[in-house]
Every structure is written in C-alpha cells, then in structure tokens.
Design a protein that fits this description.
Mean pLDDT: 92
Largest sheet: 5 strands, mixed
CATH class of the largest domain: Alpha Beta
Strand content: 5-15%
Order of helices and strands: HHEHEHEHEHHEHEHEHEHHEHEHEHEHEH
Number of helices: 17
Shape: globular
Number of strands: 13
CATH superfamily of the largest domain: NadA-like
Number of domains: 3
Strand order of the largest sheet: 2-1-3-4-13
Structural class: alpha/beta
Distance between the termini: 41 Å
Length: about 350
C-alpha cells in the first residue's frame, strides 16, 4: 500500500509549488533521494509509534512526511489530543519545549536538530525579573514564541492570533496595573492598537524575529506595485506591521486590502476570500502550504529572502537519524513545566 511518499507526486508538487522558493533544489536525483529517505522515515515512525509534526516554515519534504502541519500552538494542541508516546517535532526549539510542557511525562519529544530562534534569543530573564520586582502587582504576557522559562515567569501566554484578546483581558482583569508584553515589539504594537488598553500602562519588550523584522514598508510597496490586485497578508511580527496598521486604520494606506494574520489565519483567509491573488509577508515556507492547499489561487512571497535559517536546520536526513538513534530529546524541568503550562491554560480558558 502506498504511504503517499512517491517520486511523481513529490517531484511535481515541490517544483510546482516551491520551485521559485528554493531554486535548483528539487532536481530529479535529489527528489529520488528524498523519497527513499521518506519511506524509511515512515517505516521507522510506525515501528516506534512516533507522531511526526511540522511547522509551516519547514521544507516541503518535512511537511509532506508529517502527520500534521500547522503553527506552534496548534501543533502542540494536536499532539496532546492524539495522546502519543513519542513525538518527533520539526520546528524550532521553543516549539518542542511547548509540546513537552503540554504532554508532560506522558510522551517523549524529539527534534531533528537543536534550532534556536532569534526572537527567543532576544529575551533576558534578568530584565523580566527586574521588571517584576519593580512592578510586583503587574502582569506579564509572553508570546508563545518564547522559551519555557519565560512562559513560567508569565501570567498569560498569547499567540499572534489571540494577542489583542489576551491583552484586553489582562487589562480588564487587572485595571490600572502595568503590563509587560514580550518579546516581540511589533506584535505588541499591533495588538495594542487593536484594543482599548491604555498604552501608557503597557511596556513593550524590544525583541523581534530577524526574518520578519526585515520585512519593511519598502518590501510591501515593491510587492504591491507588482501585484496591485492582490490581498496583502501580513504577519504581525513584520517590521512594517505597526506603521502599516496605523495607516490602514486611518485610511492612509495604499493597500486597503491589507490583513494582519497569523500563519493559520492566512490559510483561513485565503480559503474564504474571493480574491485570486495574494502577497504573503512571512517566512517563505508558508507559501508551499498555501499553494498546495489552494492550487487555483496565486501566492507571491513579499521577499524571496524571508528565510529562517533556524527552521531550515531541520532536514529529512536528520529526522531519520533522530528516529533511529533518539538523538535530541527535549526536556523541561518539572517546576518550570508546571508554571509554564498554567500560563498556557489561562490563555486557553480565555480563547
């Protein structure tokens, strides 16, 4: 019985939906090698009863070999619902940590590599501790794209989908109290602009994703000039997001069909929109998923350089090695895991 891993479909899909994203990568010989490794990955995963999941920003072959593709929180919630004994998580390290935080001792979590994250790297725990010391009755909201220790120091966790809702809830539940939103300053600014929260009470940490931060207004303008009829899908981590949102709200934006969306939100919007053409302002891996899901619509990357080298550290060869040798296991100390999970659960009760 076919497991869906075959040369004809992979060669056609990878070149049709990702050929411009990864020029010269998917040659016939290379795809043949990928398919051979893919068959071994599926076999070993079956033998070890492993659930393989991949983030939208992973290479196409990792998306295809996975049982589930999604955003970081969605994948963690999926693995919890499946109740596996082993998970092989293709993403960056904080994603594996979050899966382990939610699963606890019920499952082991492995990753193909140990990829970091520039946004997580911007976090200094001492700065958070000092803020808490000065604002003892304050509220800390951390983006889901943080390490487990930061989540454990937080009252709430949020995603790019629900950040405005969590921010508004925190302000309503703690009137007049200071709020620290971390670590992404662009997401914080965009979220704040969509609430009734007093901006003077919110401290925005000055972190950023290096890939999204480089996507500025000039990149959007160039893409929009080339595709003036397209919907513009902007991830709220982008460097242009706060200024673009302000202009859009005031009616000053050149592109009135601009939407500020999480990766999951981009997919949902494209599925329901009457538009046939879209400019996608996030990491280029997302375009493979969009194009394959909606082959009759057109998706343009806002920049061919929007590539996360951390996400691309994972390869199908490393995944096979991990499955065979249990090479890189994700662990989270129990006291940190318990506090981090509590912050995540507070978010889930709100949204």
């Amino acid at each position: 019985m076919s497991d869906g891993t075959n040369f004809e479909s992979w060669y056609e899909d990878f070149n049709r939906f990702a050929g411009d994203l990864y020029p010269d990568r998917y040659t016939r010989d290379f795809v043949k090698d990928l398919v051979e490794i893919g068959h071994r990955v599926r076999q070993v995963a079956r033998d070890k009863k492993s659930l393989i999941v991949a983030h939208y920003y992973q290479y196409p072959e990792l998306q295809e070999i996975s049982q589930k593709v999604g955003d970081s929180l969605g994948l963690s919630r999926h693995v919890a619902s499946e109740e596996p004994t082993r998970v092989d998580f293709c993403g960056v390290w904080f994603m594996g940590e979050m899966a382990k935080t939610i699963l606890g001792d019920s499952a082991k979590v492995f990753m193909p590599d140990h990829p970091g994250c520039s946004l997580v790297d911007s976090i200094e725990h001492l700065r958070i501790e000092n803020w808490i010391r000065v604002n003892s009755d304050g509220v800390v909201i951390s983006y889901v794209n943080t390490d487990a220790k930061t989540k454990a120091m937080s009252h709430y966790v949020c995603t790019s989908r629900n950040a405005p809702q969590i921010l508004q809830h925190a302000a309503d539940q703690h009137p007049g109290k200071r709020i620290l939103f971390l670590p992404d300053k662009y997401l914080g600014a965009v979220s704040l602009a969509q609430t009734n929260v007093d901006p003077d009470l919110v401290d925005l940490y000055d972190g950023a994703c290096h890939v999204h931060a480089k996507i500025g207004e000039y990149a959007l303008e160039d893409a929009f000039d080339s595709h003036p009829e397209a919907d513009l899908l902007i991830h709220p981590e982008c460097g242009c997001s706060s200024s673009c949102l302000a202009k859009t709200i005031k009616g000053q934006s050149l592109y009135q069909r601009a939407y500020f969306l999480s990766t999951e939100g981009m997919l949902r919007h494209a599925e329901t929109s009457s538009s046939k053409e879209f400019i996608v302002a996030t990491e280029i891996g997302m375009l493979y998923r969009l194009r394959k899901a909606l082959p009759n619509k057109i998706f343009h990357p806002v920049s061919p350089n929007a590539v996360c080298e951390y996400m691309k550290m994972n390869t199908i060869e490393k995944l096979l090695d991990s499955l065979l040798n249990d090479r890189i296991e994700v662990t989270v100390e129990k006291p940190i895991r318990v506090r981090a999970e509590a912050a995540i659960q507070r978010m889930l009760t709100i949204t």
